Fold each of these.
Amino acid sequence: MSRDKTPFSAGLTRRQFSQAAVGAAVAAGALAAFGKAPAFAQNQALKVGVLLPRSGHLAQAGQACQRGADIAPAVLSELGYKVEILSADTESNVDVARSRTEKLINDGANVIIGAFDSGQTAAAAQVCEQRGVPLVMNIAAADGLTEQGYKTVFRNFPTSTMLISNGMALMKDLFAATGATPKTAVFLHANDTFGMANKKAIDTLFPTLNMPFGIVESIAYDPKAQDLSIEVAKAKATGAELAIVTTRAADAIMIVKEMVKQRWEPMGIVSPGSPGLYDEQTYKALGKYVDYAITNLPWYDPKAEMTRRVEAAFKKAFPSDRFEGYAFNVAFTLEAILVAADAFKRAGSPAPEPMLTALRATNLKDKMMVGPAITFDAKGQNVNLASACVQNIKQRPTVVLPKASAEADPVFPMPGWSKRT
């Protein structure tokens, strides 16, 4: 066979072609070294593996987070970012989370986003660290996630310590604003990774916070339980004036239903940072009975340009659903993808090392949540997240504190169950 029939016949020998290819690679490397993105990266999409509990006992929250991932490509495209979403369901199981993380990476994911639950996120973090692939947490609060010395883990979400510290400070503000102060409280919490992390934070911080009430008892429960009547009866029996809770939607619904059934009427129900009380499914299940419950947590800025973009995209994709009921999960999931996309744009490459270097240098001001720009400390934690006091008013999460951001005045004590209209 003649040599001139080969693909290299257009004026090049094999040796010449190889030399030209090497020269091109060297030139591309030189451009990258001077901070210019390689040409291939300019039109390349970042492959984002989104890991969420879309089935199992955390399905409601996981599906809400998934909506943020669903609208992310359209929202971020308007801002000059290109992302391709690869989704995986953890089935609310730690072992499944681990195996699905491996599969997402094997399928080509350049970065992992997830996983809402702290235990499942910890499993994903181990895999990402072993594989050298970045993990950007959307929602997961256990302090230990950024205390393991991992080099590939980044969290734009408060730790349990941050949630409790900020949440307790806002309780003092609530009491001052309303002129009503409870003297005793009972703490109801899930016994999973998230719930126990919050309990540990309360046990550690409470003695140092000079709170005006004492916690008479902490009551743990299984978030997978089908009935919490015993736990609520035990909490009622303490005579506590305030119910402090760490819940997700399913257990929040069970707790409030039991409180109504057992006619337990504390001065209020307050959560220092858990998602259950303002979830859309909670509103649908409880109606007026979830009104006046309070959650102290990071919240979206209704005046931010990013919020307007996300809300418009959400309404277009899900016209039958209320944005407010999904906004927290949507916002933190979309922001996690935005963090990754922004790093990719600056790195000019989806390869792990350039991505990790760019993530560490994040300084993202155009975002959705209240507070200063997103940055990460040496542990990969955003330490600048702020909280707001969000109260359910007419089955809508409404900012009532701080005063400068308030949409309404706080109501405390809450009206009794029979006085709701």
Amino acid sequence: MTDLSPEIHIGLSMQDIDAGQWDRLVRDRSPFLKHAFLLALEQSGSVQVDAGWQPCHLIVADSAGGRDKMLAAMPLYIKSHSYGEYVFDWGWAEAYQRYGQPYYPKLLSAIPFTPSQSPRVLVGDDEALQQWLPHIRQAVQRYAEKIGASSWHILFPDQGSAEALQQTELIRREACQFHWRNKGYKTFDDFLATFSSRKRKNLRKERADVAAQGIDFQCLEGGNISEDTWDIFYQYYQSTYQIRGQHGYLTREFFRLIDQSMPENIFLVMAVKDNRPVAGALFFKGADTLFGRYWGAEQDYDNLHFETCYYQGIEYCIQHNISLFDAGAQGEHKLRRGFEPITTLSYHWIKDPAFRAAIADFCQQEVQHVQAYKSAANEQLPFRQSDTVTDSQE
């Protein structure tokens, strides 16, 4: 453990932070933590004050010898709403409003629009995490007091961050997602062999339906995606939101920037019919995890979403020996396609003692519902009850 006397700085944008030092702490643990990703969000205007996301990132720096060295860091935002977070606290905001209290602004440690687990406090090693977390917590709470924030929320921490956060007085909240695990499959058929006969037939029919519509697929790695293709994909991405009367969070410039700054972390699957793209899904690659993130289509084709976003991703994981596929938040429909329920966590500091007690009680009761939900979800998985079961010939 170091004896340095560091300084904690809050209120920084990514352009204020040295990319090399930030990424040294990230250590390739998530593409979404990379300096390039967070900087692209800001430079593209996807994340900005007017959009309700004011960057105010935190770093711990040692200035000994007249030279700054980053010892720890944390993404941090001032939020004026709860959109784009995927841990829903609208009910909490409504409760504040009923009692005539402001819930916003609030502080948020998360990756904008990205409900994927990863470290939330970036440090060189686990020992340093235990050292710096209490100081960081105190600094954030002082900052919350300064700007009049009601609360601080840490969303989707990975296991290491969660274990450290569990030792604090923050309120713990549970939720559920669905992830696919590569259990040493050599081919997609190896994966399907783990299904019961009826579920296997259903999935094969979905894939056959897509092929019968004359749709093929192109996998384009980052750096080899043309501007025209990005334009088409972005049009389809926005259309998925417009159908729901919304506007996509990300600007066209964001996709241009990440294609330039982190091409090794992305690839785009385009669905093609009659030599023309009709849909697309953008994936991100981590050290041993594939992340399915953004999707869009020109119109509704039977089962095309499942093929493009899930089966193409599973095929990629098998071909490249990737262990985990995180296809995004929610979606019980993932269960019958082999995605298993997992628990995700968030941690919350609530300034007001009365609201803190009420929210802590709510989160404690919510755990029972989440566990019951996971149990019911496991019952819907398509896998055979035992590897010894022999299915009839298909």
